Amino acid sequence: MRYTKTLIPTLKEDPTDAEVVSHKLMVRAGMIRQIARGIYDFLPLGWRVVRKVEQIVREEMDRAGAQEILMPAVCPAELWQESGRWEHYGRELLRIKDRHDREFCFGPTHEEVVTDLVRRDVRSYRDLPINLYQIQTKFRDEVRPRFGLMRGRELLMKDAYSFHVDADDCHREYQLMADTYRRIFRRCGLDTRQVESDTGAIGGRRAHEFQVLADSGEDAIVSCTQCEYAANVEKAEIGRADSDVLPAAPAATLKKIRTPGKRSVEDVAAFLSEPPERFVKTLLFTTSEGETMAALVRGDHELSDVKLRNALGVAWVQLAEASVVEASTGAEIGFAGPLQWKRPVRVLADHAVRGITGGVIGANETDHHFVGFDQQRDLGDLAFADLRLARAGDRCPRCENGAFDSHRGIEVGNIFYLGTKYSTAMKAMFLDADGREKPMEMGCYGIGVTRTAAAAVEQYNDANGILWPMPIAPAHVQIVPVKWADERMRTAAEDLYGKLQGAGIEAILDDRDERPGVKFKDADLLGVPLRVTVGGKGRGRGVYEREQRDQAEASDLPVGDAVDQLKKIVAAGLAH
RNA sequence: CGGGGUGUGGCGCAGUCUGGUAGCGCGCCUGCUUUGGGAGCAGGAUGCCGGAGGUUCAAAUCCUCUCACCCCGACCA
User: Fold this and answer.
1) Burial class (CB in 10 A: 0-12, 13-18, 19+), A114
2) CA–C1' span, A10 to B29, in Å?
3) Which of A74, A369, A397, A545 is the most exposed place for a label (fewest CB within 10 A)?
4) Quick one: pLDDT at residue A442?
């Protein structure tokens, strides 16, 4: 690539609408431009990165025996109605109508379409297993797109779907995909963790996420310090920790006290000079079944709505509206408690609430709380479940002495065991060896290709710009002739450029007639892993200067040996 | 959807309170000088001040409506 023939509109200043580093740097490096909220143009260098990620994904999926196909982006409503998701998927589904007023959606995921494809053309156990994947533009009408490519509405995604004769074979494939994902992200140069996760809107029974560790990540994950267990905090099981059991408080009677205007645990704790862990938070939820229920968690804990939803066995829960809270408690929001309901409400408590004494709870009366709450004495028939978010320091559920560390993560991939959810709903059946008809077992596996590119920038950047890992860099080498007007430098740079191309090394030749400082700054910003400076300094000694973007020091690169040396470094970077 | 904020040359911003010739820095174009970490001088181009309506002799500025984008929350493969 010649710099002057390539659209690389770099910016000196951070764009004002960008918050996270990947967004800022990819815009500044002239790789992406926003065109609407959550929707981006990819410019030549940005697109090269995306295509490299895509190619790594493709190679590894092919190696695992999956077959690439392409399904339509625009999908008919009928298929989604058949699975029930036309109603249930919600407003993330971009719905459109054609000129005949027929309903379609822009596909956010393709379980329905692929299941339809397979049910029509796969009939026998002899045709199974099969794993079909595509790399395609998806559209998800996110409530709040943000952080550039990290949460866009239009995104490039690899989605794979596998079909099997039984659950065992599906689990084998699930494991194969997990291994494949580890290879893919390692080849991309990314440090990822595989964590247990909830199955969410996709449905199904078992799921893992692949998270790139980064402070800017939107997901919170915990991992055991002693064993392999790691999970999203909303899902992570919590070991029966002794630390959750509070020492008994001095005996006290239940007493109603005035707490005017003190609604949050923080406020009331400060007002009463009681520690938050002596509080029991009462949160009212409306479920997908239309029930109003209350969940109790300790004041210093946070509720996981995922765990609550799973404990109740419902499709979704959401915090109850103010009017519902007031109807159930007879009080304004902020004073709900598990005693003296105005209207009976089912109550489910987190394990850490068990046996609490000397507790503080809302009184179901505006501006009042109870102190001296004793769970056994005052609310003996309580039902318990694991409802809270895991956090650092919690005991590991899988090993003796482990405890959790916490991290932030960017979810770049996920794998789901679906069971027969879609095959049953959509009648994707096959005949087994005994001639019996059975629903296929399914798994699905996604990778956010554009998000992976952004996650790489989150993981590899410094004050001057991006530091691409070699395998996904927009080019391997950037050649910077210090003075383009100088014929000897120009000739030498052109010569090296030609030889690198011949050697299969991707190079950007900065053939702009710019001052050296401009070229160096732009080179740092773009983040090409290797830079060769062709200038006056080394001319007398017959050397160029070689710099690696992730190292401070430059070193000599003998002219005659340049191509071979660069080839070796590039090869090592690609093999990493 | 609730709360907060911003829309002024390609980019970053001032001007709005208190109505009166639309500005600055960077970038862009021309020329000269420069040339190893975002050069200097001189000259130049680029604005329906997000849009619509209103008030006024006069609106970037005041009023009403609207659209877009950003942040926080709810939400989310």
Assistant:
1) buried
2) 19
3) A74
4) 96
Cα torsion for A451, A452, A456, A459, to the nearest 10°?
Answer: 80
Q: Which residues of chain A have pLDDT under 70?
A: 200-204, 241-244
Which residue carries 């710009």 as its tokens? A465
Is residue A56 within 8 A of residue A40, CB to CB? The reply is: no
Work out if A451's Cβ lies within 7 angstroms of strand B: yes
Task: Name the DSSP letter for residue A561.
Answer: G
Contact A532, A520 (CB under 8 A): no
pLDDT at A225: 92
What average pLDDT does chain A have?
92
pLDDT of amino acid A218: 86
Measure the CA–CA gap between A39 and A53, rounded to whole angstroms. 19
CB proximity A318–strand B (7 Å threshold): yes
A540 touches strand B (CB under 7 A): no
Round and report the angstrom distance from CA (A518) to C1' (B34).
Answer: 14
pLDDT at position A467: 97
**Cα separation, A130 vs A213, whole angstroms:** 32
Q: In what order do the strands lie in the sheet with A255-258?
A: A255-258, A368-373, A359-362
Does the CB of A38 fall within 7 Å of any strand B atom?
yes
Contact A325, A217 (CB under 8 A): no
Measuring from the CA of residue A533 to each C1' atom, give the nucleotide at the shortest distance: B36
Per-residue pLDDT tens digits for A215-249 = 888 899 999 999 999 999 989 988 876 556 788 88
Indicate yes or no: strand B within 7 A of the C-beta of A36. yes
Q: Which residue is nearest to nucleotide B72 (CA to C1')?
A: A144
Partnered with residue A192 across adjacent β-strands are: A212
Please, what are the domains in chain A? Answer: 3-237+406-458 (3.30.930.10), 242-385 (3.90.960.10), 475-575 (3.40.50.800)
Give chain A's largest Cα–Cα span: 93
Instruction: Write the pLDDT tens digit of every residue in A417-429.
Output: 999 989 999 999 9
pLDDT, residue A204, reads 65
Do A43 and A54 touch, CB atoms closer than 8 A?
Answer: no
* Residue nearest B38 (alpha carbon to C1'): A518
pLDDT attached to residue A203: 59
Output the pLDDT for position A427.
95
Distant-in-sequence, close-in-space partners of A439: CB < 8 Å, separation ≥ 6:
A420, A423, A424, A427, A428, A429
Nucleotides of B under 7 A from a protein CB: 1, 11-13, 25-27, 34-39, 68-77
Q: Are A125 and A165 in contact (CB under 8 A)?
A: yes
Q: Answer whether A535's CB lies under 8 Å from A481's CB.
A: yes
- Please check whether strand B approaches the CB of A400 to within 7 Å: no
